[in-house]
Amino acid sequence: MFIFNPLWTIFVLLMGGYIAKIIGVLKQKQSRTLLDFAITFTIPCLIFDGIYHLSLDLSLTLTILTGFLCSLLGGFFAVIVGYFFRFSRATIVSMFLLASFGNTLFIGIPIVIGIYDSSFIGKVVFYDALATALPFSLIAPFVLSLGAKEPISLFASVKRIVIFPPFIALLLGFCAKVVTLPDFIFGPIRALGGATTAVALFAIGLSLGFGAIKSAYKSATIVILCKTLIAPFLFIGILKLLEIEISPNQVLAILECGMPTMALAGAMIIKAKLDSNLAVSSIAFGILFSFVSVPILCYVLL
Predict the structure, then answer these.
(1) pLDDT tens-place values along the chain, 302 residues long
(2) How far apart are the first and last CA of the chain?
(3) Which of 201, 197, 194, 196 is nearest to 18 (CA)?
């Protein structure tokens, strides 16, 4: 039952946004405003608070990097299967990005907190920064250029990273660790940061669409299985092979490794005019499939 509460929360917030769009209370384009608010204000506050109070160690860093490696292996496996099915280059390129990078922040935080407690938020934020946000920003432009009609600028992508509010908050969080900040400073920061999950999930629900699955069900199924099951089970296999006892940090990393497709990956694929139907389908149905995959992982791990 412990995993039911975070999954129920995610479901209600997603469906709340989706129903608001269906009945006309809000419009799909308004999801952009909510996401902009989350990216510009709530996420930076969450990241700064989490990183400042996080105790870093080499073991946690290696665990996160292992999760990132397994996610990439899941992406390569999706590519191999895509070649077997003779999908187009645009679809195969899209499959790699969608199967390699997950929604480790918006979906990951409520699930990890539901299993453990709020003290793990900093570790989730660190995982997202080290295994999702930074490598995606560096890898995505190169991968997209393989299938896009127009070249993607690496310099422009790096520039976007530097001025990206969550990245600035990440740097400030590490820099602030050298001094002791009074606790009252974190009152408004935590108030804003606490709104991240609700605002982001509601916005994602508001933008969800399911019509594209008709033309992309094969490729979307491959992406979803590689992202949510194959990658985390590769991680578990590595730990079993090395005879390493699974700790809470490793449980966190395995669950984060199995999070559904990253929304930003889908947005960039659509912007690059690759397989838009696959992107939309992988995000929408990947989130829904996480209600199956996460309990499976929790059963195996816990």
Answers:
(1) 467 888 888 889 889 999 999 999 999 888 888 888 988 898 889 889 888 888 878 899 999 999 999 999 999 999 999 999 999 999 999 999 999 999 998 889 889 988 888 788 889 989 998 898 878 877 887 788 777 665 556 666 667 667 778 888 888 988 999 899 998 999 999 999 888 888 888 888 888 777 767 778 999 999 999 999 999 999 999 999 999 889 999 999 999 999 999 887 887 787 778 888 898 889 889 988 999 999 999 999 98
(2) 12
(3) 201
Phi/psi for 102 (5° steps) reads -115, 170
> Could you tell me the CA-to-CA distances from 160 to 72, 135, 140, 168, 289 in Å, in that order?
23, 13, 13, 11, 31
Q: Are 265 and 143 in contact (CB under 8 A)?
A: no
pTM: 0.86
Within 10 Å of residue 33's Cβ, how many Cβ atoms? Answer: 12
Q: Is the dihedral of CA 44, 47, 51, 56 positive or negative?
A: negative
Enter the tokens of residue 295: 């309990």
Which tokens go with 130?
Answer: 């080290």
